[in-house]
Amino acid sequence: MIEPEPQLKPDPGADPDHWHRRAGAASGGDVVIFDLDGVLSDASPRQVHLLGGVPDWDGFFAAGIHDEPLSAGVVLARVIALPIVVITARPAFVHADSIEWLGANRVPFDLVITRPEGDRRSSVEFKAAELEALRAAGYDVVLAIDDDPSNVEMYRAHGVEALYIHSGYYDLGVGS
Ligand SMILES: [Mg+2]
Predict the structure, then answer these.
(1) Is residue 88 part of a domain?
(2) Of 4, 45, 111, 142, which is least surrounded by CB within 10 A?
(3) Residue 156 belongs to what domain range?
(4) How far is the CA of 175 from the centre of ligand 1 (A)?
């Protein structure tokens, strides 16, 4: 009789520093990716930081703690029967704010991924790299939900079905 190969379980202690795992969350297996701004949180009132003159990106991201939740995305997150990975291209300095916001707005999550410190890649490059990192860590991404058409295209190009939410931010030529 041939013994089955032991399943390699990723070690949660080996998570990168910019991955925040909810206590008790499983590592690996089927997951759904949610974007944050424009899917779960309403970033429209702070788009003003990006319009006209020099965009104030720090002001834009710092104001995110005050966002109202977006009903459609939050309801979807609450009813979905798979673990949730929130991936946001927000910079590292609002990592703690983002996790606090998710808790305050009762958005379920298993893993939150923000940019590593000092990361300057485009949102698409960053999210594509994190998708590959998730796969390497034993995750199977069943669906991704994002309001950036470029990210939707990227996920599909990487073999992940993606659901587009129209926030309208990208109609302005800016947004996050
Ligand atoms: Mg977004």
Answers:
(1) yes
(2) 4
(3) 13-166
(4) 8
The arithmetic mean of pLDDT across residues 68-92, rounded, is 96
CB atoms within 10 A of CB 120: 8
CA 88 – ligand 1 centroid, Å:
7
Is residue 121, in this structure, part of any structural domain at all?
A: yes
- CATH number reported for the structural domain that contains residue 31 in this entry: 3.40.50.1000
State in Å: Cα 5 to ligand 1 middle: 40
Please give the residue that has the higher pLDDT: either 15 or 176: 15
What is the number of domains present in the chain?
1
Look up the pTM and report it: 0.88
CA of 124 to the centre of ligand 1 (A): 11
